[in-house]
Amino acid sequence: MMDLPLKLGILYLQSSQYSAISQDFIRGIKLNNLPVQYYMESIDIGINDRQVIEKIQKLNFQEEISLIIAFLGHHNTKNIYSYAEDNNIILIVSNLGANIPYKLEKHKGVYINSYGLNEACYSLGKYFAQQGMKNIVSSSSYYDAGYGILEAIEMGLKEKQMSFLGHYITPFNPRENEAEIMQQVIQSHDGKTVFAFHSGLFAEEHGDFIQQTNLLDNTEYYFTPFSIKENLPLNNTSQVYIIGSWIENEENSEDDFIKNYKKTYDGEHPTIFAMLGYENGLIIKKIYNSKRKLLQSDICTTIENLSIDGPRGSVFFNQNTNHTVFNHYIYEIFINENQKKSIKKSRILKNEGCFFERAMGMEQTNQTGGWQNAYLCH
Length: 378
Known about the structure:
The chain is built from 12 helices and 17 strands. The chain is α/β, with parallel strands linked by helices. The chain has 2 domains: 186 residues, Rossmann fold, CATH 3.40.50.2300; 152 residues, Rossmann fold, CATH 3.40.50.2300. The strands form 4 sheets. A 7-stranded mixed sheet has the order 8-7-9-10-11-16-17. A 5-stranded parallel sheet has the order 3-2-4-5-6, sandwiched between helices. Strand 14 and strand 15 form a beta hairpin. The two termini are 41 Å apart.
């Protein structure tokens, strides 16, 4: 039985590219002003299952903590989830959803609150198919193509017997005329729509290449959120969109989460990592408000039946998969009246929760997702 105030464990990451990833994640959790005692452990880049289990054991054995929030990747999670289940530890896991969770079993007491990038791309593929959009080409980097993002959008396309006309992948060591080659490949397929996914330094590199082409003048582009950098050239005729479950934009700029985050942290804007942390904090708040003394089974029941109204709107757990369910959106980037880049919601992609159920029951057919870290970057 758990006495309150709760002891809350947090497993946080390290990243050279996203140096503030854990700070943002923890800030999001703490923004809820939870009446808890925090105990934190670093898990490096989140791919070593033995290390993660050791940190869980330390929190559990030394501090008697059995409720833990963690930011993990997709690599070797089965061992971690099985350990938590076998030892009556409640584990709330966040990730970006970089890969498809093939044959991932549901584990009692383990709950996944993902950004759902794979699910968003799957939904985008279905949207392309429903709209009858053809002449679609993908554009990515050698690094980012190692995740399951492309496979996810192809799942959505194939439901309507559609597929990409071609793929362009920037090699690890770009050629001197890489921008020219990129344009030639996309135009050789008569590409009218491009799905582009890059992250970190490779997103900046891609922006530099696009600047050397006229692709944004005559091609509709759909990006993942981590692909958008300041060097992406836009004009008043560009048709540029972002697919994702949450992005700070014109319409949500006055939301309580964003306003409170900026007020609390000296005007800094919340990131996707902060948003996930905040949602996890809302889940803990629901647990805290449910009863004064909580058995593990009580906490599981609370989580499995809760619904939170967070930055992404309504979020709840699918009881068949223990993954959160939420809608996805297509956002439009445009030049506003002040000649600055701005973002607004363009379309909602309703989520019926079938993606994870389908994916978790499927065998992996291709060896994708070779990269192991938790945050889409090196």
